[in-house]
Amino acid sequence: MNSLTATTGLLRFLTAGSVDDGKSTLIGRLLWESGGVYEDQLEAVRKVSAGKNGTADLSLITDGLKAEREQAITIDVAYRYFSTPRRKFIIADTPGHDQYTRNMVTGASNADLAVLLIDARKGLLEQTRRHAYIIWLLGIRHIVLAVNKMDLVGYDQRTFTDICDVFEQSTAFMDTVKKHFVPLSALCGENIVQRSSNLGWYDGPSLLELLETVPVSQGSDSGDFRFPVQNVVRPDPDFRGYAGQIVSGKVQAGQEIIALPSGRKSRVEQILLYKQTLDEAIAPQSVVLTLQDHIDLGRGDMLVEPERMPAVANQFLADLIWMAREPMKKGVPYLIRHASQVLCCTVTEVIHGLDFQTFASHEAETLQLNAIGKVRIVTHKAMFFDAYSSNRATGSFIMVDPATNDTVGAGMVSAEDLTVHDSAPYQAAVPLPATYSTGLTVWFTGLSGAGKTTICSSVYTELLALGFRVEVLDGDVIRRKLNSDLGFSQKDRDENVRRIAFVAQLLATHGVIVLVAAISPYREVREEIRRDNPNFIEVYVNAPLEICEQRDPKGLYKRARNKEIEKFTGIDDPYQPPLVPEVECRTDREMVKASSARVVSAIQFFFASRLNKDEGQAMSCPDAGRAEIAEQSRIQSNREDCL
Amino acid sequence: MSQHLSHLDLLEAESIYILREVAAEFARPAMLYSIGKDSSVMLRLAQKAFYPGKIPFPFLHIDTTYKFREMIEFRDANCRRLGIDLILHTNTEAIQSGANPFKLGTKRCCALLKTQALLDALKLHRIDAAIGGARRDEEKSRAKERVFSFRDAFGQWDPKNQRPELWNLYNGRVDAGQSIRVFPLSNWTETDVWRYIEREDIPVVPLYFAKKREVLVRGNLIIPLEHDFELRENEKPQQVMCRMRSLGCTYCTGAVLSEADTVSKIIAELQQFRRSERENRIIDHDQEGSMELKKREGYF
Q: Which residues on chain A are in Cβ contact (under 8 Å) with B51?
C-alpha cells in the first residue's frame, strides 16, 4: 500500500446507484487499484466466484454478508477504507433497492461527497433521482455522477453528455450541490484511477483524482460555536469540567459563552484535551471545558456563543424520512435524540409528502416506510437548534419509538418558521396548539405506597362505567418504557414529570381523561406543568411516611433503609406536598371507595364548570377554578367525616 | 490562528465522543479488554475521554486460559499500574470437562471458551453495553456493523434488521436483558492503530515485536509453541524470526515472518504487506462465512 503521512486529510463519501449499475464492482476496483485489497482477501473472493467464471469478481470484495452474496444484492451499508498519499478515504457503500433507502440515508448522513452511479445504457432511473434527492436533502455538497459501463455503449460521447444534461436539468433546483461528471468503466478499470484512451474526448480528472482533490469543508456548517455537554467530569470537589465534542465552530480560553437552556453567561476558563491545556479548540475536537463561574450544567445542555444563538422553540418544521414498517402516526409520543439530549415529541401535522419522480410535493396524512415529508413537530419542552442547512450537527435528529426502542425516523430542521429568541432565559416556550384542550389530566402525587395506583384503578373503573374515555399513565410503567433513559436525580425526576405531562396532554387532545400516578416529589415542576396545562387536577394521595413504610408493597422502603437504593423519596430525598391540591385523599383514614368517589366528583365538577365557561360564564382565572374544585372536594370530605 | 487536524485527530475525537455517550447512556457498561493492540488504543482513548476523572466503567477480560503467558503478564501489570477495575471471566465448567482446541477443534472450542463465556459474563454482571475494539476493516461481515450494535436477550445479532444509524446520534435504548455492543474503533484501520500507538507512545504486548521464537511451521502457518501443543508425527519445532500481527489464543494465532522490532518498523512493514491481519486467525477460515456465523451467535 501507499505510504501515508499523519497530516493527510480525510474524505468520507458514499456510493449509491440502482441495482446492477456496477457499484460494488466500482468500489472493488477502487480498493484493488489503490492497494486496499489484500491478496488473501482476493483469494477468498476467487474461491467463491470460481464457480461462476474463473476470474475474480471484484464486487464480491464489498458484498460482505453471506445473505447478500446469495441474493447478489447489497442489503446494508458496508464501510470500506483506503488511503492514497493524498488522503484517507472512508466509503459508505449503500444499497440500491428502494426497500433499503433507510440504509442509504444512514450512509449519507456523515458523507462529504456522493458518487452516484448510472448505467450508461439505461440513463437516469427513478431510483437515481431518489438518491440525488436524498443526497441533496442530507446536505452533501458534492455529487459525482459516475456514468458507468461506457464500454457497453462504444465509449459514445453523446450518450454521456445526454445523461449529464438530463441530470443537470432535473436537479437544477439543488443549487447547493456542486455536480461533477465522469465517464468510466468499472469492469475494465477505465477512468477509475488511470485515464483511458478510449475516452480520449473527456479531459477531466479520473474518479480517484477527483476524490483526492475535491475541497473538503466542514460540510454546511456556519462556523457558530456549538458544544453539547455529554458528561460532567468531577474527579474531586475542586474540579468541575464539561466533556463534549465541539460540533461546529471553535472556542478559545477566556471566551464568553452562554449555557442553554438556563441562559446563564460565563467564560471558558480552560480547554483540556487529556493532559494538554489548549488555547483554542476547533470542531470536531472532543475536549473538556471548565468555566469561570459555577453554573448548573449537565448532559443535554449546550454551550454557545452569545452573538450567534441557535433558535429556541418547542415546535418546528422538519424534513422527516420515515424508516419503520409501521407508518408514522400523528399525535402519539415519540422520542427525539438531538445533540446530547432526549426529548419527548409528537408530529402534529404533515405539511406535505414528496414525490420522487417529479420532486413535487403532495398532500399526505402520514408517512410510510422510506417516504419523506415535511412535518410539524411539537416537543415537550423547548429545544435549541439550528436549521439543518446551516448546521448539520444541531439541525439533525432521530426519532425513536419508545414502545419498541427502534429508530423510526430521521429528521432535519427546516430553515422556514424558525423563531430566534434573544438571550434571556428560555422558559417562554410556544404554547401547545388550541386543540390541546378537550380532555383532562388528573395528577396523583404522593409517597411510594400512599395508594396512588390503587385509587387510580378505582377511579378508572368508575369513569369507564360513566362512559368517559380514560387512560392510566403509571409512573413505574412509564419509567420502564418511555423514560428508561432517566435516573433519580432531581433533574431526571423533573424531566420524567414533564414527559408524562406531555403524553397526558397529547391524549387529552383526543378527549381522554388521563390518570397519572407518579410520586412526582417536587412542587416546582408540578406547578410548572399546571401552568402549561389549563385542564389539570391535582390529587394529593396522602398517608404518613410510617404508614407507607409499614405497607411497603414493593419492598422498596426496606431496600432504601438498607442503603440498597439511593435517593428514595421520603427516606433520603424530600417529598414536597402540594399546597392547594384540588383533592386530598387521606388513605390512612378513609376507604379507597371514598377517596375515588371524591376524585370522580371533582372530575365531574371540572367538566361542568368548563361547560359554563364555554357558555360565557367563565371563571376569571384558573386559580379561582382550582380553589373552587378544591372547596367542593373539601365540603364533600367533611360531609363524609361527619357521617 | 489556523489549526489543522490530522486524520488521527479526527478518529480520536470520534472515538472519545462514542465512549462518553456510552458512559452517559448506559447503567452498566464494560469495556471488553482483549490485551491486544486495539484494546491498548481503546484504553488510551478511554483515559482521554474522562481525564482528569477516572474511567467510569470496568474492563472485562474473557480468559480462555489458552492465551499467551506474555499477554497475561502484560494485562496484570498494565491494569495494576493504571488502577483499572478488571473483571476476569473463564468458562471454568467447560475447561474442567476438558474443553481444549486440540480435542474439540477450533470451532467448538471458540464457541465454548469465548462466545459462551462472554455471554455468561455479560449476563452475570448485568452488562447492558459491551465496548469492543473490532474495526470494520478487519473482516467482511464487520464492514457492516453499526457503532452501536443491538443484541437481543440471547446476545444475538440480526444483520438484516439493524437499527439505522445516522449522523452521530446513537440509539442505545434497550429493554432488560438486551444489550448493545459498541465499537469506538469502527473507522480505524490497522495502520491507523499503529500510527496512533506510535504518536501516543502506548505500551503494547512484546509479542507484536519481531524476535527469534520457537515455533512450528505447518503449511502456511507459523504456530508458536505454548500450552503443550501437540506435534504431529515428523513435526519439529524451529527457531524463527517472527512476530504476531494479531493476538488470540496460542493455537489459533499464527505468527508472521518479520524483522520489525519497533513500532516504526511495523508501520513501514504494513505499507508492504499484501496480506490481511486476520489471515493468521484460524477461526475466521474454518468455514465459508464463518465470522458472520460466529457474530450472529454472539462472538465479538
A: 233, 272, 274-275, 288
Find residues 6-25 of chain A whose CB sits inside 8 Å of chain B: 6-10
Q: Is the pLDDT of residue A109 over 80?
A: yes
Q: What confidence score (pLDDT) does residue A38 get?
A: 62
Q: What contacts A427, CB < 8 A, 6 or more positions away?
A: A382
Which sequence spans correspond to the domains of chain A? 9-213, 226-304, 315-413, 440-642
The residue that leads in pLDDT, B273 or A104, is: A104
- Residue B255, strand partner residues: B244
* A49 assigned to active site: no
**ipTM, two decimals:** 0.89
How confident is the model at residue A442, as a pLDDT? Answer: 96
Tell me the three-class secondary structure of A39-97, residue by residue: HHHHHHHHHHHHHHHCCCCHHHHCCCCHHHHHHCCCCCCEEEEEECCCEEEEEEECCCC
The conformation of residue B144, written as its DSSP 8-state character, comes to G
Banded model confidence at residue B265, pLDDT cuts 50, 70, 90: very high
Report all structural domains of chain B as residue ranges with CATH numbers, in order of start. Answer: 7-193+289-297 (3.40.50.620), 206-284 (no CATH)
A275 touches chain B (CB under 8 A): yes
Rounded distance, CA A131 to CA A21, Å? 13
The rounded distance, in Å, linking the Cα atoms of A630 and A626 is 6
Contact between residue A298 and residue A231 where contact means Cβ atoms under 8 Å apart: no
Integer angstrom CA distances of residue A522 from A317, A445, A498, A531, A579: 33, 10, 12, 15, 12
Q: Which residue has the higher pLDDT, A381 or B3?
A: A381
Over residues A539-547, the mean pLDDT reads 95
Pairing of strands A87-93, A583-586: unpaired
Q: What is the mean pLDDT of residues B221-237?
A: 78
Cα(B173)–Cα(B178) distance, integer angstroms: 9
Has domain A226-304 been given CATH number 2.40.30.10? yes
> Quick one: CA dihedral A415, A418, A422, A426, positive or negative?
negative
- Res A175: pLDDT: 86
Q: Which chain B residues are within 8 Å of A76, Cβ to Cβ?
A: 144, 159-160, 162
pLDDT tier at B299, thresholds 50, 70, 90: low
Decide whether A9-213 matches A440-642 in CATH topology.
Answer: yes
Q: Give the Cα separation of A396 and B111 in Å (integer).
A: 41
CA dihedral B44, B50, B51, B55 (to 10 degrees): -70
Does the CA dihedral B10-B12-B18-B23 come out positive or negative? Answer: negative
Q: Give the pTM.
A: 0.83
Enter the CATH code of domain A440-642: 3.40.50.300
Cβ-based neighbour number of residue A480 at 10 Å: 12
Catalytic residue among A220, A340, A520, A633: A520
pLDDT tens-digit profile of A44-78?
666 665 544 445 676 666 655 444 444 444 567 88
Other C-beta atoms closer than 10 Å to the C-beta of A58 total 25
- The full DSSP string for B249-276 is BTTTB-EEE----SHHHHHHHHHH--S-
CATH number at A315-413: 2.40.30.10
Question: Could you report the per-residue pLDDT of A202-233, keeping only the tens digit for each?
Answer: 999 999 999 999 987 644 466 899 999 999 99
Q: Which amino acid is at A469?
A: R
Question: CB distance A9–B7 less than 8 Å?
Answer: yes
Asked whether the predicted pLDDT for residue A39 surpasses 90, the reply is no
Q: Which CATH class is domain A9-213?
A: alpha beta
Cell of A358: 417529479
Q: How far apart are the C-alpha atoms of B130 and B157, rounded to whole Å?
A: 13
